[in-house]
Each structure stands twice: as structure tokens, then as C-alpha cells.
Amino acid sequence: MKLGLVSAIxxxxxxxxxxxxISGLGYECVEVACWPNGKAERRYAGVSHIDVDELDxxxxxxxxxxxxEKNVEISxxxxxxxxxxxxxxxxxxxxxxxxxxxxASEKLGIGMVTSFIGRDQNKSxxxxxxxxGEIWPGLIRFAEEHKVKVAIENCPMLFDETQWPxxxxxxxxxxxxxxxxxxIPSDYFGLNYDPSHFIWQMxxxxxxxxxxxxxxxxxxxxxxxxxxxxxxxxxxxxxxxQYMAPKLPGLGDVDWAKYVSALNDIGYKGYxxxxxxxxxxxxxxxxxxxxxxxxxxxxxxxxx
Length: 304
Description:
This protein has 304 residues and is of the alpha/beta class.
């Protein structure tokens, strides 16, 4: 396994500055943010370290050479939109850009895109499964044609009132994954596995790794702190950020030794990327860099 970072946290940096920073901190790979240029609609989105609209052969060669010089591999191109948004205009734009990211991943020889399924947050799971059946078979066929794997993160995208009631990503549980993989039985369709999202959903994050070992294409390291006193006050029906908070690896409730042990058990040899979303380390750019130093230092206990 190689230890890396999700680049979105370095949103103020150019591509070169981001790669330099990651290399200097001892990381071996990076999941590169590839949102469309423009204003972000949510935290950690809207970052574009590789502009897929401007990626011609010369730019692709430059990017690959720069990464090689700095000994940093690109694990995936990252774009986490809502491809099943209830707003049809947003839905179409997100699908179009996701296809561009898939093409960019092919051009760069990466062969991996990390993303969300999306969800119409105002519809039931059953209605969203039908929508999934309309939208995603064609997207995965497109990815297959270009030999690019699509790894779906299991984040529910439900944090506060803006994503209420259903959240903005359907692919959140083993039961839903089974149905999705039955509907699209493709070797190019799998998971970007993040244990933190299981914590606040009160789910086992180890057991599914063994069942879905062949579908784990990419891995995140992010932690979650569940505040039992706050949960007792508001209950599980409250907005999740009222009783939990994202943390650096080691500062929350994930048992990282057990998690990495399970990755070793299932023979996972791919990329593993730390995803930093800890508000305690966001006051200054220096605080962000400190969080990356601490995260790398902690995870090196398990990934060397």
C-alpha cells in the first residue's frame, strides 16, 4: 500500500505547489481534485488542481513528468458531484464533467476516478435506486470503454439542513452496494472505502471489507469523533454534525490498527489517501500543513 493525500485541502495551491508539498511531507501519492473551475457549492469542493477542460497531450505529459520528478503518483482523479440531483440542469452538468474527468484519467494513464453516486435528497431510497438504474449503467459503460475504474465513496453527504432529508449520495451501506453491483456487474465499478462514515451511522466498518474485498478500488483515511453526550441530547434523527465531527486519523473513533490489518487480510495493495476535514486545523494555512504532518506521522505506524 502507498500512503497519500486528497488534494482538496490544499485549495490555495497551484498544481505544482500541491505536488511539491505532498512530496516534501513524505507522501507517495495524491488523489487530485478535478472540480470545474468556479465557486464551490460546499466545503472541500470546487478545487481544481488539474483542469480537465484544458488537458491536452502537452499538459498531460507535463503533469506526469512533474509528478515523476517529485516521486509522487496520482492515485485517482477526484470529482464528487451529485449526478442524481433533483435539479436537472445541475444533474446534466455534473454528469458531463464526470465524463470529462474519466477521459482525463485515461489520457494521464491513471485509470481511476473517485466519485459519488449522488441522490435526489427528496426521494426515497427505492425511487433513487430506479434513478440509479437510469443514469449509472451508461456512465459505467463509458468508463469501461476508456478503461477507467470508478470508485464510489460511501459518504452519505448528509451533514446539515442543506442536505436534509435524504443526503446526496445513495451508496452508503452494504445492502445498497449489493443491489448496485447486481444491477451493474462491472469490473470497472467499485468502492472508495472510507471507515469514518460508518462510525456515525453506528455500523461495523470492518466486516464489509471482507465481503467487498474485490470491489475496494481505493481507500480513504479519515476519522470521525462521535460525541455521545450530544447524541443523547439530539438523537440520530438530528443533523449529523450536531453529534459528530470529522477528525484527523487517530483523533476520532476509528480503530486504525484494526482497519489496516483488515486491508492486509484482504490483500489490498492499492492507494490509501488521507482525507483531512478537521475544522480544528483550518484557521491558517500553517494549521493545515501541520494537520498533514501529524496525519502522515500517525498513519506511518501502519502503512510503510
